[in-house]
Amino acid sequence: MEILKAEELSKTYGRGETKVEALKKVSFSVSKGEFISIVGPSGSGKSTLLNLLGALDTPTSGKVFLNGRDVFTMQEKELAVLRRRNIGFIFQAYNLVPELNIEENIVLPLLLDYKKPEQHYIDELLDMLGLTERKYHLPNQLSGGQQQRVAIGRALASKPAIILADEPTGNLDSKNSREVIDLMRLSVEKYKQTLIMITHDQNYASFADRVFQVEDGIVTELGGGRR
Amino acid sequence: MKSYLTLVNRYLTAQKKKTWLVIVGTAIAVALVTGVFSMLDVFLQFEKLQVIHDYGNYHLAVKDASDKEISYIKSRIDVQNSGSWKDLGYGTINGLDCKLGALDQAFAGNMNIKVIQGKHPTAENEIMLEKWATESLYLNSSIGDSIRITFPDSTQREFIVSGIYNDIGNMKAAGVPGVFLSTAGADRLTSIKSNLYLVEFKKRVNINKAVEEIKTVLNITDDRIGLNNRLLAVIGQSRHNAAIGLYATGAVLFCIVLTAGVVMIYNTFNISVMERVRQFGLLRCIGASQSQIRKLVRREGVAITLRAIPLGIAAGIMMTFACSALLKYFNNTIFGEIPLFTISFIGIAGGVITGLLTVFIASFLPARKAAQVPPVNAVTGSKDFKISKVRKYSFLTKVLRVEAAMGVNNAVMKKRTFVLMSCSIAISITMFLGFNVFVDFMHTSLKTTKPYTPDISLASEQGIDHQVHFSLQAIGGVKRVYGRMFSYVDAAFDASRLSDTYKESMKGIAVKDNGLFVPTEKSWLISYDASQLNWAKADLIAGEISEDEINANNGVIAVAQQLRRNISTETANLKLGDKIYINTPAGVEELTVMGILRSVPFNSKELTLTTFITTEEIFTNLTDESVFKAIDIQLKKKNDEQAVNAIKGLVNDTISFRDMRQKNSEINQTFLTMAVFVYGFVGVIALISILNIINTMNTSIASKTRYLGIMRAVGMSGDQLNKMVLTEAAAYNLAGCLAGCVLGIALQKLLITNYLSSFHIVWKFPLYQIILILIITLLVTVLSVISPLKRIRARGISEVVNAL
Q1: Spatial distance between the Cα atoms of B442 and B748, rounded to a whole number of angstroms
Q2: What is the per-residue pLDDT across B94-118, written as a single tens digit (0 to 9) for each?
Q3: Would the CB atoms of A112 and B375 count as touching at under 8 Å?
Q4: In whole angstroms, how far apart are CA B101 and each of B70, B121, B154, B179?
Q5: Which band of pLDDT confidence, cut at 50, 70 and 90, is reported for residue B593?
Q6: Residue B24 has pLDDT above 60, yes or no
Q7: What is the predicted pLDDT for the residue at A227?
Q8: Average confidence (pLDDT) over B444-473
Q9: What is the rounded (10 degree) CA torsion for B339, B342, B346, B352?
Q10: Secondary structure element (H or E) that encloses residue B160, with its range
Q11: CA distances (Å), B159 to each of A171, B120, B138, B232, B598, in order?
Q12: CA gyration radius for chain A?
């Protein structure tokens, strides 16, 4: 079942001499439960693509369909709801809210949705992430790997259909990176989610069902990884 | 955590320093509004008592009211008290000049007449005397004594003293006691000068409407109606032009205070919200909708206001308290009924409403901006603001060193912040300049005692010889004794110097062949001693004053303005070096004008052409007179009764003793009441403005902590950092200062020419004020950046850079 579809997606920054074409007419589709990894040199347009897929940014032209709905025709209000219910983001720089403790950071998307967090599910998440004992700590009391695990927890909290991860291991050492990747794979399998992840590491890319290569704004599919 | 809105409290507690700055910024603005409005409220309460003390507690005066009219007015439900006041003109009492009057007992308190001994006169042959006049020096009488009064129509009658009442400053200073007859006694007289029926209305009565009603019902013409305009003015009911001008000025200035409060709070909020663009973007990424972001920002605004408003109001009340305490300390008799801690509901309501309303507006707009932040900004990081003018920057680096160029650039790039910061400073300055109008108003409309004002004045037609002068000087508590000799002389000078108005009023002046005119009026010649000459320098408009020079060159000092029939006029336009020819017993003497004074602080009894002042030596040479007509005495301690009694001991029948102290202190008191508040307003505004600038700079630097950290990380030295921040602060302040001065000057001019012209205030370019503002702004700029920079430099670079 097709969950995400990009159609002739283009993004141009600047104009005139400073014009940069970050993405050039990119089209592809992703099925439910797939694990996609995106690779490519820096500046190739990977992040732009991911931001567009997550409706964080608007394209110059083209469309993104999520569950068959055209994302960019939606009102800002609907988009916010869409993001909080269907998409989970994981950033390279973690981007946790520094004033909130670990548990609060994780349940924040649910609170934004005016939902009462299911304590049992949150405990399960914390346990899976190995953060149960740290749940009352503030982000700056945690190591990078732990912070990224919190970010994963936050992305999973609302049980979104799609998780978008922008170099989630970019700031981590190999041991922590390995843990984070394993965690993501585990959760995707457990909750039947779709994962789209940018990575530099060919190793991790090989875990994916499909690998997209982005170069100079053009996306080419490199075929299956592990499976 | 039950709701995402908890984030607000978490943020406020986590970012203590920043939260505190925003609270202080808001509190300052609330304090400004509360302070100024409460001070105005309390000022009017004080001023009302002051006016009642100075002019009497009545609103309406009806001239020659008939019995029918009186009974109608008395029976009106809106009338609190009323009574008749009859002016019986001047007479003599046991040979002493006195002012005669009659006043209803019921209304005496309203007119500040308080019986301190005996009772108010009721029988036809009873009178009441002023306390000081009963002393042995004057009438030497006490209650029950019989006393003889000569009325203006020369009739004489015997009276019995039934009461003694409090001293009236003016009467005491003039040496003319006030004598009250009973109303029954006054009715028997034919020589009533004026007969007023005074009315005090109840509180909260629409007085203008009531007066109109009385006029129509009783069919009273306007010329029989008098209003106590000063009292009406302070209770906000005057329709007099001057009062309306003042109301308008007040209204404009208080609107500016409100605007200032709004701009200050808005500015603080704008800075605080804008620095968190990235955080809001992040929240958007994880699914916060725009309205949720708005709610967050607004909730934060409310949380801050709830903490800032009580603080601001407390500060505002303290300011008012300081003013009240000061005035009550100086005069608790007049202001006894005003409590020390006056809670002004207008002030507090003003503060609360401004605070809440502004925070609502101030957080509404930045909240909208914050909500519109594209979520992608959070992911990509540093897109907090757009850099649009790249060219300017490269131009600046050519002219300035790099750190200064960056400072200017930082200020100018963020247009919105720049405008807000400068506005916040500009409005403070405008407000300061605007309120200074009240200082001008106060100085032109109220007098204070001058260095030359005497405590005791002795005057004598026959003259007081120098022996008395020396004896006075020998008295222990006497600080200074200075006498004046007066003479009326025939003085001639070049006819062309006479003013046209004078020539017209004299219907032609004869001119001799040598160009001198033939004087038809005498001129007043006054002698000054060294200290009086010294004091006169304050009024000098041309030339110089030096006793030795005048003596050496046979000099005189001319006086430009003469008081003729109570109107200040210029009869002659004398220039330095003009020759004056005075007829003396020994023939005509030639004198030279060596200085010109604006005016002299006393009036001639006779109508004179002009006034000349010279030294005692020249005066005696010219007139052969050497006795003083007046001797003024200043005491070391104003209430040194022993010294006063010693002075009284030197006074004989030919000398009249005038005790000016009560009048002087009343004049000062009237001035002080207004000055405390006028300077209070200006001071509060200056203080608030300075605090506002310091706080704004603090907030602005705190919000750039990360940016400054990055600058240090890429190799900017501490000194360069200081310079960069300082230039940025200077850019804000300079722009604000310029805009503020221009607006402030325009405002001053507008207020003075449009609303205050009836007070004879002339607008002048406020050079000193502008210089003061520039100096203070510069100092404050430097002061305001020192401590936040110190804090930033004390923290580790990595710590600062990694702060979200």
Answers
A1: 15
A2: 888 899 999 999 999 999 999 999 9
A3: no
A4: 19, 12, 16, 6
A5: very high
A6: yes
A7: 45
A8: 87
A9: -160
A10: strand B156-165
A11: 109, 14, 17, 38, 47
A12: 17
Return the number of CB contacts < 8 Å for A and B.
Answer: 89
* Selected residue of A18, A56, A166 to mutate for chain B interface (largest B Cβ count, 10 A): A56
CA dihedral (B582, B587, B588, B589) positive or negative: negative
CA of B20 vs chain A CAs: smallest distance (Å)? 16
Residues facing B612 on adjacent strands: B525, B558
d(Cα B631, Cα B651) in Å, to the nearest integer? 11
Residue-wise pLDDT tens for chain A (227 aa)? 788 999 999 988 877 777 888 889 999 999 988 889 999 888 888 888 988 888 888 889 999 998 888 988 988 778 888 888 888 888 887 788 888 889 888 888 888 888 888 899 899 889 888 889 998 998 888 888 888 889 888 888 888 889 999 888 887 888 888 888 888 888 888 888 899 999 887 777 778 889 999 988 898 988 765 44
pLDDT over 70 at B394, yes or no: no
Q: How many CA atoms lie within 13 A of B404 on its CB side?
A: 8
Q: How many beta carbons lie within 10 A of that of residue B363, not counting itself?
A: 27
CB atoms within 10 A of CB B225: 15
pLDDT at residue number B754: 84
Concatenate the DSSP letters of all residues of chain A into one string.
-EEEEEEEEEEEES-GGG-EEEEEEEEEEEETT-EEEEE--TTSSHHHHHHHHTTSS--SEEEEEETTEEGGGS-HHHHHHHHHHHEEEE-TT----TTS-HHHHHHHHHHHTT----HHHHHHHHHHHT-GGGTTS-GGGS-HHHHHHHHHHHHHHT--SEEEEESTTTTS-HHHHHHHHHHHHHHHHHHT-EEEEE-S-HHHHTTSSEEEEEETTEEEEEEES--
ipTM score here? 0.78
Is pLDDT above 50 for B804?
no
> Would you put residue B265 in left (φ > 0), alpha (ψ -120 to 50) or beta?
alpha
What is the token pair recorded at B14?
Answer: 């986590």
Question: Residue with structure tokens 């006691």?
Answer: B177
Which residues does residue B181 pair with via DSSP β-bridges, in sequence order?
Answer: B102, B127
Distance of alpha carbon A111 from alpha carbon A97, whole angstroms: 14
Beta strand pairing call for A2-13 and A162-166: unpaired
Answer whether A171 touches B (CB < 8 Å).
no
Output phi, psi for B635, to 5 deg. Answer: -100, 155
Task: Show the DSSP H helices in B235-289 as ranges.
Answer: 241-274, 277-285
Place of tokens 């970019």: A170
**List of residues 6+ apart from B655 with CB closer than 8 A:** B458, B459, B460, B464, B468
Query: If you compute the radius of gyration of chain B from its CA atoms, what whole number of angstroms results?
Result: 35
Query: Rounded to whole angstroms, how far apart are CA atoms B319 and B27?
Result: 14
Q: Flag if B11 and A51 touch (Cβ within 8 Å).
A: no
Most confident of A52-56, B351-355, B372-376, B574-578: B574-578
B388 touches chain A (CB under 8 A): no
Alpha-carbon gap, residue B690 to B772, rounded angstroms: 13
- Mean pLDDT, range B553-568, rounded to an integer: 86
* Chain B residue at shortest CA distance from A77: B289
Provide, for chain B, the percentages of residues in helix, strand and coil under a 3-state DSSP scheme, each rounded to the nearest 5: 55, 20, 25
Q: Which residue has the higher pLDDT, B80 or B284?
A: B80
Spatial neighbors of B702 by CB under 8 A, at least 6 apart, are B17, B18, B21, B788
Check pLDDT > 70 for residue B393.
no
Strand partners, B632: B457, B482
Interface probe, candidates B2, B286, B292, chain A, greatest A C-beta count within 10 A: B286
B715-721, Cβ contacts within 8 angstroms, sequence gap of 24 or more: B716/B403, B718/B793, B720/B402, B720/B403, B721/B403, B721/B789, B721/B792, B721/B793
